[in-house]
């Protein structure tokens, strides 16, 4: 019987995580550190001091080309080429203004959401791919391992978001525009480079139960009515999915895919029973 090595083999891989100080980001950073990786955590918030020898916290605005470039230099000066990149940072539904209809949305909100979520992901992906290309040109391609980009999508990118078409559209841009483009592009830069998207459903962050308490019916509408497992996704499940995609040992032939970590969500609840009854 064949024996299997089930280790992740992420030790000493340089992983950069954008949005690393956020709820999901901090859990993801912890997961990579537990796997033995060197981790650079980028976040728009001021960095907290860390005494962990394999962790570097850097302040960066991913919507700014100059900021991303400067942050990348700090990361590579510290730990070398960024082999694995997790493009997690975005403006999400917990911070964006909600609207009853698109007719009420200001163009500035639409523009800013795209600047961070779409443009920011593009700038992050470009910095990662340029770094890999430079390493190959310098003859260091053989030393690279776990060369992958994991972009974070959303169930909103699949199903839309009535109160936030700005958010849904940026996630669809990442999942259905940028991903298939990079699927064809990245292996031409480095033959083992992989690009995937992890697309979560509603995540049980510390903010989620507060929102559900403030908005009765949200738990049912978002995480139960059209969700097979009838519950939101745990942050650790998102982090584990990201680590799985990052590991060549586990997912060397997973490329150009969307991994849905959404408890089996199949769509959006269009109308509540109360809304339907009110029409009669």
TrEMBL record:
Gene3D superfamilies with a match to the protein in the record: NAD(P)-binding Rossmann-like Domain
> Which keywords are on file for this protein?
Oxidoreductase
Pfam families for the chain: adh_short_C2 (PF13561)
DNA-binding: is it a keyword of this entry? no
Domain of life assignment: Eukaryota
Task: Please report which protein family the annotation says this sequence is part of.
Answer: Belongs to the short-chain dehydrogenases/reductases (SDR) family.
What name does UniProt use for this protein?
NAD-dependent epimerase/dehydratase domain-containing protein
């Amino acid at each position: 019987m064949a024996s299997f090595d089930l280790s992740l083999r992420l030790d000493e891989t340089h992983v950069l995580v954008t949005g690393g100080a956020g709820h999901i980001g901090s859990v993801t950073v912890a997961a990579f550190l537990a796997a033995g990786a060197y981790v650079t955590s980028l976040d728009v918030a001021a960095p907290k001091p860390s005494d962990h020898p394999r962790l570097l916290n850097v302040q960066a605005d991913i919507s700014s080309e100059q900021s991303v470039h400067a942050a990348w230099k700090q990361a590579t000066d510290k730990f070398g080429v960024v082999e694995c990149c997790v493009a997690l940072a975005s403006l999400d539904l917990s911070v964006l203004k909600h609207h009853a209809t698109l007719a009420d949305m200001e163009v500035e909100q639409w523009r800013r959401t795209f600047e961070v979520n779409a443009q920011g992901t593009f700038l992050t992906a470009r910095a990662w791919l340029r770094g890999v290309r430079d390493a190959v040109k310098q003859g260091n391609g053989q030393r690279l391992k776990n060369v992958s980009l994991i972009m974070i999508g959303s169930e909103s990118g699949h199903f839309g978001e009535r109160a936030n078409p700005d958010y849904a559209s940026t996630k669809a841009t990442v999942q259905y525009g940028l991903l298939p483009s990079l699927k064809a592009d990245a292996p031409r830069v480095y033959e083992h480079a992989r690009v995937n998207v992890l697309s979560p459903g509603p995540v049980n962050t510390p903010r989620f139960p507060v929102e559900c308490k403030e908005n009765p019916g949200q738990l049912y509408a978002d995480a139960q009515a059209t969700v097979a497992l009838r519950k939101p996704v745990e942050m650790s499940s998102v982090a584990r999915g990201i680590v799985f995609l990052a590991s060549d040992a586990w997912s060397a032939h997973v490329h150009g895919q969307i991994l849905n970590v959404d408890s089996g969500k199949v769509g959006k609840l269009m109308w509540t029973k109360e809304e339907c009854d009110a029409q009669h």
